[in-house]
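User: ok so my PI wants both of these folded by tonight, can you help

Assistant: No problem, let's get them done. Here's the first:
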Amino acid sequence: MDATRHTGPGASLRQDSALKHATGEARFADDLPMPPALLHAALVLSPVAHGRLAPIDLSPALALPGVVAAIGPGDIPGRNDIAQPRRAPEHMLAEGLVEYWGQPLAVVVAETRDAALAAAAAVRPVIEPLRPVLSVEEALDAGAFLFPPMVMARGDAASALAAAPRRISGTFRAGGQEHFYLEGQVALAIPGEDGDLTIHSSTQNPTEVQVMAARVLGCDQNRVAVQVRRLGGGFGGKESNASWVAACAAVAAQRTGRPVKLRLGRKQDIAATGKRHPFLYRWSAGFDDTGRILALEATMAADGGHSVDLSGGVVFRSVTHGLNVIDVPDVTITGVACKTNTVSNTAFRGFGGPQGVLLMEDVTHHVARALGTTQEAVRERNLAGGGNDAVTPYGQALEGDLLRRVWAECRDGAEWDRRRAEVDAFNARNEVVRRGLGSFLLAFGISFGIMSMNQAGALVHVYEDGSIRLNHGGTEMGQGLFIKVAQVVAGVFGVPVERVRITATSTAEVPNTAPTAASTGTDLNGWAAQIAATTIRTRMAEQAAADWGVVPEEVRFEEDEVFAGNHRIGFGELAHRCVANRVSLSQTGFYKTPGIHWDPAAMKGEPFFYFSYGAAIAEVQLDLLTGEHRLLRADLVQDCGRSLNPSVDRGQIEGAFVQGLGWLTCEELWWDAEGRLRTLGPSTYKIPGSRDVPPVFNVRLLEGAPARADTIFRSKAVGEPPLMLATAVWNALRDAAGADRLDLPATPERLLMAARAAQG
């Protein structure tokens, strides 16, 4: 091993399990060796969307061979409640009332998975149907909200709107999105001595799994240990939904006294778990002849489904990102979460931000069409900073100069002016096939909206041979978190990253952690690990200083060695010296994001640690006879600060953009009139494939980006922001179709209708 090879912060290293993923050696929850006496569980799901549920008869399941137990709501030893604290209860297994098609009613446990599935299918619940509410429009007009509206306001929007020289209104819809992680929901619960329970869960939130399992079991949390080495994708779908899946397995394991695995098949997974929130937008804007937007009143209505889940955070982020990079002097944005009889919608990459930033893209599009100018000109006229206000309506300032720099680099690198002329010339020559060019500029706030979630813990051990063991509260789901945090620790000690042993996330090692979400995984866990490692390094430096008769500040850790003046020792040798001299080489680290605050009643504060900026330009080709389109080219510029791992960050940018492309163009959830979800697999639900990636795909990290000293090694988060850069494709498609309104996803059918409407 070459100890001089740079593997610390800033090095382009592959994800720690990349080779194992490629060879199939990586173990996920379903790949773990089967413990002795393992049982398998299956769910009984509701066949109707809404109705009164009679006490469920599980005898048909118990009568089948191989069935060991059947569990209904009355068999839960603790509380039948999987809601977050301080929220209205939400049943793990339905009691008395069915709220959506696919709602779990019971758990069946058998010797084999096939036997469990057959037994679950044998149960025939008795449900008196009630009329379901399936559309967000119906719920919005009826005032059926999951919680009171969130209103962000500045100035007097109503008066400014009435006084504006020109006014325009609009309405549009954006659909939801299925997570479609490669690895489905799965949990393995293993009973131990004295009521202890170990749960292997595919979760982004081990602590919530621990909390929910302890709640339904009626035991202390210290009896439940949750462990996860890696997830086969999460995207937010395993932030809260994984908790009730694991809780079902936990109840079954306690009931039978045997290990129980619950793995949802793809159709059951899609039916029973939440999605990205669909949104309905209604807005009115006032502006002048220069394109300056003077006033805005808008309502953004999220379809929350049947329960709150994480809708509060989603609506918060959509409202705070409703203006995105645009300054509007007088504004009122109202965000609501509507209650419908569909699966409870949940976190999804971007967490309401993608839905929020669509608002001003629609407003600027309509203002530009009304004035006969370009959307880019309207955006630049109203861009935060410069001659406009840089402070958002909730009180936090954007960096206007950095916004303009990101946009300028993207525009120049993509050769906007030349390509705009080429697209116009192409369209002048072609009546059937048209091209479109669109752009987008983003400011995305980084932090959890709930202040208490902005914390993390880590545990670092240095052994006497100089090897290091790292554990923290973040989960690895393919995004490269583990290698980044390992690079942080390697950088602190000045050792190759190969010396840092990455270990499975465990509530038994690091407790009370936040979920790996909101693009905060590296920020939070990286700082916690850095704090722990720095404390150990300080102790080691003090030992070296005492041995050499120097002050600790002179001691340097570099290239797997320790130096001071003419003194030199290997890192492992110094670790051995510390152990011999009874110096502790183990330390926990704790970090909480500084400086953030939020008043939810006033909707004011500084809820974000910083903003991540990005820009995108997309070129599309559209067939006006069929509505089919192709993304020809995408140019992205993303601000990552001083990237901890440029290779990983580029992968995140590319993957997020394509996932955003899927949400905006081809991924369509469809319920029938009875509230049954009909897009339950890849035959009916279309995620983007390799051929949807643009043949010209230019991704650039902003070079020399201003670096904050208070971010981990001056880096910036990159998990979620690039997904929103795909909004440029929406703008490009509207440009190609000449469309005034284009609902999302922009499927061939919608594009065809929009183009025909534009043609009169």
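One down. Here's the second:
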Amino acid sequence: MLTLALLAPTPAWADPGDLSAYVKARAADADGAVDLAAANYARALAAAPSNPGIAIRAYREALEAGDVALATRAATALDTAGVAPSDAALLPLAVAARRGDAKAADAAIARLATGPLAVLVPALTGWTVFVRGGDPAAALGAAPKDLVATRFATETRALLLIARGRYDAGIAALSPDLRMPNDLRVAAAQLLFGQRQDAAARTLLDGRDPTFVALREGAPAKPTLGFGVSRLLVRVASDLAGGTPTPLSIALTQAALTADPSCDRARILLADALGKGGAVARALAVLDGVDPDSPFAGAAAAERVVVLTTAGRDADALAVAAARADRAEADAYDWQRYADLLVNSDRAADAVPYYRRVIDTGEQGDGWAAWLQYGGALDQAGRWPEAREALAKAVARGPNEPIALNYLGFARVEHGEDVAGSTRLLAHAATLDPDNASITDSLGWAYHLGGNTVRALPLLERAAIAEPTNTEIGEHLGDAYWTLGRRYEARYAWRAAQVTATGDGVTRLATKIADGLPTGVRR
């Protein structure tokens, strides 16, 4: 939640029930109970409408809850107090855009022009000029000398060219080789579908991405003000989605959804921000708004798994992924997602057939990464001969992929097979990715098992310095020290490794600390 240094103190209300509402709102807020928090903040704000401290909390919570009326009321209170946040104009902009009210939208845009969201002003103004029937070129050309503002104005110009029937010019303006953000690609395709330019739309949706595949069936949209505003805000929110969620992420996505309630991409981004912020129930409720027949249904299912996993609800995430993977119409993305979760849940044997399905479709499985995951699952499931074959195929398809080289080389060493040849694979991997501590450790371990512990030691020490909390690396280092007669350092390394050890590793390390390695044993 946003914290303001200028928050006013909580008022001493005469009615203890109002104070109770504020306290309940804070508690619900801390628990991620967004709807309950918003309801109680609404009561608190009604009792103290001029308190900016309550108003800002009510505003933020209302945006998370999707309560436009409360957010608007709280924003008005903040405006009156002169402390409205820079994103407070987004909601009135969205409401105006949904109604197609260009005049009201321009008033909101003027407010944005005075803050950090001024980079959106030229692009937004281009849309209001367009819906009035004018030529947006001048507005878009007025972008300040700012790379971000120029980028958004350029992208909006391309969409508006399409909206005005200049299809070839619009597509050319997007990017000569179609290397553009996916959200922009989708927006352009929807406009083209809306003007019956289906073939042109499908050229923008090339590839195996399941959302693109679904959209290629046709997803028409009209170039309304609501469409333009929502897609621009989604575009910005998408850029922010990779980092830590902020109040701005919520404000952008909620405004995008308000401007165009049919924008499922906004729902997914909103759910992502809510889930990362701990509002899990609200995030799942937002995802419930994506229709099962929506082109974004698959992306929504994937996001549901992310939200549940982030919340530590692994069993629920597995259940969602399983239901998706076992549908008659499931695709390689569904199988991949479920298999990954199974492996992370120590159920590699159950993951094997799903990784195999991915390979057999050829949709994702014709490359080294698919064979690597399949081979890794086989190895963890105790099916080494099959795993060795799959891992060899991964290396054959990716002879210069350090991860594939490392896995095959290390696994063969662990199984006592062709240590010399495996060491060469690992040396090649280390050359390709010299800063990868895991690969450095693998190479050092191969030298150690091959009888050259003197050469192994500096590599294992370097890996341990890079990843001091890696249990496996720490144990390897301890084994090498012991083999060279450095008993004190060996026990120190093993004790350090024991701190993060789990399962059988705890007992194994305890035995080594107590008894060391038997004579002639290197591990």
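Residues 97 and 225 are 5 Å apart (CA to CA). Residues 147-163 form the longest helix (17 residues). Good luck tonight!
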